[in-house]
Amino acid sequence: MYSEIMAIQLAAEICVHKGFTNVVIETDSTIARLIMIQEVSAPWAVDTIVRKIITLLRDKEIRFSHVYREGNAVADSLANYAIDEEISGTFEEFHQLPAQARKLINVDKAQIPSFRVRVHPWRF
Fold first, then answer.
1. Which of 15, 60, 54 lies closest to 35, judged by CA?
2. DSSP class of residue 41?
3. The pLDDT value given to residue 122
4. Burial class (CB within 10 angstroms; exposed 0-12, middle 13-18, buried 19+) of 86
5. Rounded CA gap, 53 and 60, in Å?
6. Which of 36, 45, 91, 113 could share a disulfide with 96, CB 3.0–4.6 Å?
7. Which of 3, 18, 20 is nearest to 75 (CA)?
């Protein structure tokens, strides 16, 4: 939960810094979304962070949206890249992104579907 809320805080800070006023923040964490739209109370461990995010975004048109993990492939790819390469920061332009992230963005742009498949063994 902590990492999801911290990611939302970073997104909020970037929105403020860049002057964005109409933003959709997507998360694959249903509980993080519910906390941010104040449908459930934030756990004490993230309550202060959540209040800071709400304060940062109070004058903005913000929508929090849930996406399934398949729709979050670019974010997951970038998170894994940051961990593997032990880096942090932001990418300002498409060409700065790692090759895997660019590939996933192009797949999204081409509207190629991603499927979640669960295979069950045959039961006789």
1. 54
2. P
3. 74
4. exposed
5. 11
6. 91
7. 3
